[in-house]
Amino acid sequence: MIKLVKACSLYIAILTLLQSCATEMKYDIELDMSNPSDWTVDVVHLGSKQIDIAYDSIDNAVVMHPLWSAIDTISTDVATRNVQNGRLHTYQNIKMSDCTQSEVHFEIKMPQEYIDEGKMEFVFSLQASTAGDYLFNGHTFTMEDFVGSGNTYKKMVVIPADYNEPPIKQRKIERINIIFERQGSFVSAPIKIRNLGIYLNEDKIVPPEPDVIVENPKSFYEFTYDTQEAIDALHIEVSTETMDITRQLSATGDGVEFIPLWSVGQVPDGHTGNVAISQTLGAPHNFEPFKTEYVFKIPQAYFDEGKLQITPFVQAGEQGYFVWSGVARNLVEYAEKAGQDIVLSLSTEDFLVNKQKKKNLIESVGFKFDRHGSTVTELITLKSIKVTLDIEK
């Protein structure tokens, strides 16, 4: 009888321990890999749709299959042709969570073909949505990280320190991103991911500091571009998504002339050809509320072609994590004023329909020429930019 009691006690103890371990291993958030439609393919920022997403019921894994090939270099689709800088960006939504103390676990089976080629990069990312200004945290794995584990599942653990980002960017996470940076890869083989879960470690989370609301040094700015010094103060962003543009003082001396570099051979292969131009204010400002006005002169040829859009925007600096907000303007609305002064505006009113990003640390105003395949290279004149803040509601 004593032995039976001891055996029962041992059994109960083991059962309790197993139940405890099972409880401890339960993720706070676990992704359902069984429904491919739960994944969104994001084509913003050079993303393409060259991916097939399926489900492996045996492994309980999502199967992500890049549909890349050598003929992409001659594709008529810009995103497909961008074999060097393009990406496959997929994400699944989760409940809004503070991930400042999170620990992410998952397993990934990387085909040996990618490892042998050594080009593609795999990025795991936590990202906020609207409420968190779409702030992005990503950790990049190169194919060297998978040497020795090709065609087998490799266990991955990602902690906040792996993102090298400040905690505020991990406060309001609503997206789990799986991103494949192409980097010139031509391999097309299925990649499997399973058992993706997050421990939030909520007991370790430290509450955030209150938002910093700055006082504006000035409530009104007017920038005119009638001198070379003023023209030189404009910032032209050059990146994989935006390119340079010729700029010069107009013959009449009342504005800066922009001449797009969109002729044959000038736009890098697979590049959008978009141009981003900004004017710094010199310090962070509170743009809640605000209004900006841009005075342009746009030739008839752009209206006839019907492709170019101009997108006024405002943007935070480093202190505000470069958060960007803009609204595209279709030139058709101004067709009757081709070759004349046109006023494009952007204001708080433009962001009332959708919940807007924070605008309390804005350091620059600007605009984008969204090319959309335009080949017109006639000069566009910018005469002035006005900024009005502290508007009475």
Distance between the termini: 84 Å
Tell me the structural class. Answer: mainly beta
pLDDT < 50 stretches: 1-8, 10-23
Largest sheet: 6 strands, antiparallel
Q: What does this protein look like?
A:
The protein is mainly beta and 393 residues long. Helices cover 11% and strands 38% of the residues. It has helices spanning 2-25, 78-81, 112-117, 228-232, 300-305; strands spanning 29-30, 40-42, 51-56, 61-66, 87-97, 103-109, 121-128, 136-142, 153-158, 173-181, 191-199, 220-224, 235-237, 246-249, 256-259, 275-285, 290-297, 309-316, 324-326, 329-330, 341-347, 362-370, 380-389. The strands form four sheets. Strands 1, 3, 4, 6, 9 and 11 form a six-stranded antiparallel sheet that branches. Strands 12, 14, 15, 17, 21 and 23 form a six-stranded antiparallel sheet that branches. The protein is globular.
SSE blueprint:
Layout lengths: L1 H24 L3 E2 L9 E3 L8 E6 L4 E6 L11 H4 L5 E11 L5 E7 L2 H6 L3 E8 L7 E7 L10 E6 L14 E9 L9 E9 L20 E5 L3 H5 L2 E3 L8 E4 L6 E4 L15 E11 L4 E8 L2 H6 L3 E8 L7 E3 L2 E2 L10 E7 L14 E9 L9 E10 L4
Antiparallel strand pairs: 1-11, 2-5, 3-4, 4-11, 5-10, 6-9, 6-11, 7-8, 7-10, 12-23, 13-16, 14-15, 15-23, 16-22, 17-21, 17-23, 18-19, 18-20, 18-22
